[in-house]
Amino acid sequence: MSEPAESFHEVLAGIAPKSSARAREAIERHLANSPHAGSMNAPALHRLARAIGRDHGVAKRLWASGEQTARFLAPLVEISTGVTPQQMESWVREFDSWGLVDCCCRYLFLDTRHAWKKAVEWSRRTREFEKRAGFSLMAYLAIHDKSAKDARFHRLLKIVERHATDERHFVKKAANWALRQIGKRNLRLNRAALQTARRIRTLDSRAARWIASDAIRELSSKRVVRRLRARRRRQRNASPSDGLACDRRGFSSKLHD
C-alpha cells in the first residue's frame, strides 16, 4: 500500500533543511505566516519559487500533494528540459481550473521541446481544461516563440477555426486568445487571422460569433495595426545580426479566463 502524499507544508518543511540560506528563510517565513496552503498569492509564489530554485524532485512532490497552491508552485520549480510527454499528459489530466492550466502552460510546458506537438494534440481533447491547455499553449507560443515561422501559425489558425463552435467558456476564451495573439505577431499573420475570424463569424454558433467578433475588433484596431507597421519598419531597418524578433510591447501575456 502506497504512503499518503505529503501536504504542501510537509513538502516545504522537508526541503527546508537541505536548502540554501535564502530558500530556507523564504520557506520558514511562509510556514510561519501562512498556516493555510491556499493563502499564498501569485507574487509570493514566484518569490518562493525563485528562492527554492529549479528542482524536479521538489516539483514532483508538490504536484503529488494535490493541493492547489502546491500545484501552482510545481511548474515554477520544475526543470523544463527534463519534462517528458508522459509527465505532461499526467499533469494535464488533472487540471481542474483555468488558472492552473495557464500557469503550467506559461511557466513550464511552453519551454519544453514538446510544446508545439502538445498544443495541437490537446486542442482535440474532449475534457474542457485539457482542450483549453491546447489553445493556451498556442497563445503563449504566439507571444514567446520568436523564431517560429508563419507556416506553423497558419496551421494553428486552421485548428482554431475547426474548434470555434465549442461553447464551453474556458475553451472559447482560450481559442479567442490564441487567434488574437497569432494575429499580433506580424502584418502577414494579422491578415491571415482576420480572414480566419471572418470565416468563423459565419458559423452557426454563439461561441464562434463571439470569438470572431472580439478578435476582429482588436486585430483591425488602429492601435494594433499601427504597432505592427512600426514593427515591420524596425525589422526592415535592422541589420541581419539584429534578427527579426518580435517586440512584446503592448501585447499582453496576461491570463484570460
List keywords for this structure.
2 domains; elongated
Written overview of the protein:
The chain has two domains: 1-78, no CATH class; 87-257, no CATH class. Helix content is 65%, strand content 0%. The chain has 14 helices and no strands.
Radius of gyration: 20 Å
Uncertain regions: pLDDT < 50 for 5+ in a row?
242-254
Alpha-beta classification? mainly alpha
Number of helices: 14
What does the largest sheet look like? Answer: none
Shape: elongated
Terminal CA distance: 39 Å
Give the topology string: H per helix, E per strand: HHHHHHHHHHHHHH
Strand content: under 5%
- Total domains, how many? 2
Mean pLDDT: 88
At a glance:
The chain has 257 residues and is an all-alpha fold.
Please write out the topology.
Layout: H1 8-15, H2 21-33, H3 42-52, H4 56-65, H5 68-77, H6 85-92, H7 98-107, H8 115-123, H9 128-144, H10 150-162, H11 169-182, H12 187-201, H13 206-219, H14 222-237
Helix pairs in contact: 1-2, 2-3, 3-5, 4-5, 5-7, 7-9, 8-9, 9-11, 10-12, 11-13, 12-13
